[in-house]
Specification:
Elements: H1 2-7, H2 11-45, E1 69-73, E2 86-88, E3 91-93, E4 96-98, E5 101-104, E6 110-112, E7 117-125, E8 130-136, E9 141-148, E10 150-151, E11 158-159, E12 164-167, E13 178-185, E14 188-190, E15 196-197, E16 202-203, E17 207-211, H3 215-226, H4 249-253, E18 257-260, H5 267-273, H6 278-285, E19 298-301
Antiparallel strand pairs: 1-17, 2-5, 3-4, 5-13, 6-12, 7-8, 7-11, 8-9, 9-13, 10-12, 13-14, 15-16, 18-19
Length: 302
Amino acid sequence: MTIASLAVIPAAGQDLLANQAPIDRKMKAVDSLMMQQILTNEVWESPASELYEDWDAMFASQPTALPDSFRINLRGFCMPTTNRVVTSNFGARWRRQHKGLDVKVYIGDTIRAAFDGKVRVVRYEGRGYGKYVIIRHPNGLETTYAHMSKQLVSENQEVRAGDPIGLGGNTGRSTGSHLHFETRLCGVALNPALMFDFKNQDVVGDEWVFRRSTYNRESAQATRLRGTGGVYRGGDGLNYAEVPGSKNKQQASGNVRYHKVKKGETLSAIARKHHTSVAALCSLNRIKKSVKLRPGQILKYN
């Protein structure tokens, strides 16, 4: 029997076992620390590797299999800018899909990493993002920061939440200095307003759960609550009747429309075309009557 076997162990042997026990516990603790370090190194080597098939700096988005649901940890965040004004929502805009939020920043403003992560892309795209940075994070997200005047990081660099990664600017396809901010999961653009509240400089909670079945409805609600002026302006493929608080299309959209300036057009001609006044155009776009319009410039009108 075991009891009998223990009873016949010499005193010296018992002392050896007693002395060995603290060593075993210490080695177990060392092994645990080593395992934690190995796991940490793997996370930094390839963040969210369980979601992404590869690491490629050539492409801004790399669509992979999007799960039906996924829990995203939002702890340890940093707002990418201290500016609070969202100037353009996620979704349909000018007959195209706007895949992020535009936040008003000024040239030279510091742009910071939203979470810990590893820089995957640092590139320039003249007809699109301008100077941009993409970071992949251990929580599964990839965040994009576009139209910057300067990039302050390099590809494969490890960053912490809050680290400066660039300066605000107006590069690429942009009509004014701002930060275009995207959040993607498995290469698919998700509405940043689902997770970030720029007005209150906060995230929506410790975590957010992506669900395919409810995404559109949640995205529309997030835009209504945290978009431009807190008003839902469409773009989520959702009927206005489905959006809480929206009585009709005109009210939900704020009755704001957009005009792309053509070569030779004047404020007077644009005002006549859209049955409004020059004063109203100037007020809505915060410009002076003497402004020189540029072809391709976007103007709001009621």
